[in-house]
Amino acid sequence: MRPLSAENTRWTLTMNQEANEQVAPIVWSPEQFRDTAKVFWSRILEALVAWSQRHAATIVYAELSRLSDAELERRGFARGDLHRQAFESR
Fold first, then answer.
1. How far apart are CA 72 and CA 61, in angstroms?
2. What integer pLDDT is reported at residue 90 of this predicted model?
């Protein structure tokens, strides 16, 4: 790392000023901001709902996989299809 000097500081400030001049500011109207925020939070909500559904299916699968073949058959499940049935039910 180079030692800090007046020359290095001036060069850094000049580079930052040039970079800032090349970037156009982002200006959103309140409506654009509101619409973008709605889309963002709706996608976050969709992801959380999908995660919770997969988590619930995982719990169902874990509980059913501990049962004996006879108990699974009594409940209408086949051990070979257990993973598909547990995850498709959600």
1. 12
2. 54
90 touches 49 (CB < 8 A): no
pTM for the model stands at 0.57
Residue 78 has pLDDT above 60, yes or no: yes
Calculate ∠ Cα 49-42-86, nearest 5°: 15
DSSP track, the chain: -PPP-HHHHHHHHHHHHHHHHHSPPP---HHHHHHHHHHHHHHHHHHHHHHHHHHHHHHHHHHHHTS-HHHHHHHT--GGGHHHHHHH--
Cβ atoms of 45 and 74 closer than 8 Å? no
Q: Is the pLDDT at 52 greater than 60, yes or no?
A: yes
The pLDDT of residue 77 is: 87
